[in-house]
Design a protein that fits this description.
mainly alpha
């Protein structure tokens, strides 16, 4: 189920991915007894909404959707796309490395507080670029697009996904601000539901 998948990815981030990216920080968290589920479940379950401002969260979501679209575009990728195969765990690793210096000098109590209250970040573009490079073996998005040579130059068929089947509700030509906010909230709720169904498939 959803909780089992999130727990699996949380442990994957701290025990495997972080150990490969930064062994010193990974060992420090292990020695302190900081469990991945104590903070990463919140990061992943809420898609970083409580760690960053709305504008920065939207930037990370752009990265997620672009990663999903790119994976769907590649003909050779036939696997089910879920959170463990997405760019999200790589973003989490980038966040941990961002606060590395502070964590290495901290005890268990402060470390957990810092991870549960991530420091303000003005721009998450660095997280995005580092995460894309880490996932795609040191290639950025521009390089990936240059390397991609479609065999069929015609317009590719859109993947059958909830992301591509959303039809916006018609609104009046001059809607009230409250109507706009309500429509935006409904759209965001639909996106989160779609992500949960796609990335956390029922077992």
């Amino acid at each position: 189920g959803i909780n089992a998948e999130i727990t699996f990815v949380a442990n994957l981030v701290q025990s495997t991915m972080l150990r490969n990216a930064d062994p010193k920080l990974s060992k420090h968290l292990t020695d302190l007894g900081v469990h991945a589920t104590s903070y990463l479940i919140r990061w992943l379950r809420l898609l970083f909404l409580r760690e960053f401002s709305f504008s920065n969260t939207a930037r990370l979501w752009d990265c997620m959707f672009a990663d999903y679209a790119w994976t769907s575009l590649m003909k050779h990728n036939k696997k089910e796309y879920n959170v463990s195969q997405s760019v999200l765990p790589h973003i989490a690793v980038s966040m941990l490395i961002f606060v590395k210096d502070e964590l290495l000098q901290s005890d268990f109590s402060y470390t957990l507080r810092r991870l549960m209250r991530f420091p303000p970040v003005e721009d998450v573009s660095g997280f995005v670029s580092h995460s894309i490079r880490r996932k795609y073996h040191n290639k950025d998005l521009a390089t990936l697009l240059e390397d991609y040579k479609p065999t069929d130059v015609s317009r590719p068929e859109q993947p059958k996904s909830a992301f591509y089947t959303y039809t916006p509700t018609a609104v009046a030509s001059t809607p009230m601000m409250s109507d706009k906010n309500q429509a935006l909230g409904a759209s965001l709720a639909g996106v989160v539901t779609s992500l949960e169904r796609k990335w956390f498939p029922p077992q």
